[in-house]
Amino acid sequence: GDSVTQMEGPVTLSEEAFLTINCTYTATGYPSLFWYVQYPGEGLQLLLKATKADDKGSNKGFEATYRKETTSFHLEKGSVQVSDSAVYFCALSAPSYGKLTFGQGTILTVHP
Amino acid sequence: ETGVTQSPTHLIKTRGQQVTLRCSSQSGHNTVSWYQQALGQGPQFIFQYYREEENGRGNFPPRFSGLQFPNYSSELNVNALELDDSALYLCASSLDRVYSEQFFGPGTRLTVL
């Protein structure tokens, strides 16, 4: 079945550091790929998405590129802020079916 | 545009009891999905409702059941609560069952004692 694997956390960075959170997936066909963010005590917010190979999703300085050949969707940001501290989830959705399959989440803490 | 809302925010039950959680979908959305998020884990798909019919189910026992109403709001019912049912329950709505972008509510935190 479909699955998503994220890099182990937690990740601790200083403000303005470069961020990479790795995500790989297993799925049949061509899934859509997502990054969601969860702030403490809140639900999930869609951060960015990509629906086909080589698409780049971007939002709020975050980027991720849909790599079919390596089945990856790594999240990157050039300069993190304290306000980026949250839990980040990589997820996929199979074609024509709205079920989301999530990774285990990566806790990011950014220090001033 | 009103987002996805859920009630109640928090709930405490004892083992063996039954619980009903509620969700109002975002305006214009006809599909609702429910997820269970255990502490420190990613959300797990419970089931999806499209136009009042169940449209897919995850690996959850039959004591997890749901409803969707004509206004596309939804309920999640859990019977015979177990300690492991303690989790954050998330509702998400989408424009259509094949539209993959889902919008999440804030969740209901269920604690089973």
Topology record:
The complex is a heterodimer of chains A (112) and B (113).
Chain A: E1 3-6, E2 11-14, E3 19-21, E4 23-26, E5 32-38, E6 44-50, E7 56-59, E8 62-65, E9 75-77, E10 86-93, E11 100-102, E12 106-111
Parallel strand pairs in A: 2-12
Antiparallel strand pairs in A: 1-4, 3-9, 5-6, 5-10, 7-8, 8-9, 10-11, 10-12
Chain B: E1 5-7, E2 10-13, E3 19-24, E4 31-37, E5 44-50, E6 53-57, E7 64-68, E8 74-78, E9 87-94, E10 103-104, E11 108-112
Parallel strand pairs in B: 2-11
Antiparallel strand pairs in B: 1-3, 3-8, 4-5, 4-9, 5-6, 7-8, 9-10, 9-11
Coarse morphology of chain A: globular
The number of helical runs of chain A is 0
How would you characterize the largest beta sheet of chain B? 7 strands, mixed
Unreliable stretches of chain B (pLDDT < 50, length at least 5) are none
Radius of gyration of chain A: 13 Å
Fraction in helix of chain A:
under 10%
User: Residue share in helices of chain B?
Assistant: under 10%
Low-confidence stretches of chain A: none
Binned strand content of chain B: over 45%
Largest interface: chains, residues each: A-B, 24 and 28 residues
**SS elements, strand count of chain B:** 11
The pLDDT mean of chain B sits at 93
What is the overall pLDDT average of chain A? 93
Strand percentage of chain A = over 45%
Tell me what the structure shows:
The complex is a heterodimer of chains A (112) and B (113). Helix content of chain A is 0%, strand content 51%. With 112 residues, chain A is mostly beta strands. The termini of chain A are far apart. The mean pLDDT of chain B is 93. In chain B, strands 2, 4, 5, 6, 9, 10 and 11 form a seven-stranded mixed β-sheet that branches. The chains are: A mainly beta (112), B mainly beta (113). The interface between A and B is medium-sized, with 24 and 28 residues.
